[in-house]
Amino acid sequence: MGQKKLIRFASIKTFANVKEYPQNMQGGWNTFFHNQNPVVLELACGRGEYTAALAQLYPGTNYIGVDVKGNRIYIGAKKCLALQLNNAAFLRTQIEMLNTYFAKDEVSEIWITFPDPQLRTSRAKKRLTHPRFLRLYKQILKQDGFIHLKTDSPDLYRFTKRVIGLYKLDLIEDLDNAADQTNREDLKIKTYYESLDIAGSKRIFYLKFGLPDTIINIDDELQEILKQEENAE
What we know:
An 8-stranded mixed β-sheet has the order 1-4-3-2-5-6-8-7, with helices on both faces. It is an alpha/beta fold. The mean pLDDT is 93. The longest helix is centred in the last third of the chain and has 14 residues, at 219-232. The chain has helices spanning 3-12, 29-33, 49-57, 70-82, 98-101, 131-140, 154-166, 178-181, 185-188, 192-196, 219-232; strands at 18-20, 39-43, 62-67, 88-92, 107-113, 141-151, 170-175, 205-210. It contains 11 helices and 8 strands. It starts with a helix and ends with a helix.
């Protein structure tokens, strides 16, 4: 590990707005923030630009960026400290462990911003909008809570829309070119990864959706559909 990363890993251990694999945090985030405001997560937050920007836009909401890479979290956490954003924090852990750190109904919304689209069909279960992740989110998300997906990947966008349809999720908003279709301030936020335009789509796709009380398990059927589509290409 490079010296720069080592310094960052050591630094975040001293940051008041960073929790690394904490114990006994379920149900305790309002105590951590010293208020009863809604708690919103940004998953795979990377450098934390979205977490910081959302916290600035909506000071009456608590935002937590979640990522496993401490050297990236360092950038966002340091910025939030400098800006004195008391409603922004960061959690270092794997997303698969979310229910270890949040209690039932503790989270009001989840943002998934420019995640790895995991383009190969064999890796579809690693997509953060795959039903196996949605079931995890359901464990911590309030009944009237919802999920935001913002991506430049048309493949991830189409996949997520397929999941929404197959699993009878509640589609609230669907934009296939957000830059031209909305003036919402929270969708104007740009991250480092967005600026790279890795997908080369030159479009930003956005979906907002809710989860039903029970998410049916037709995951094998979903995987078979994806395989058939891949073979047909």
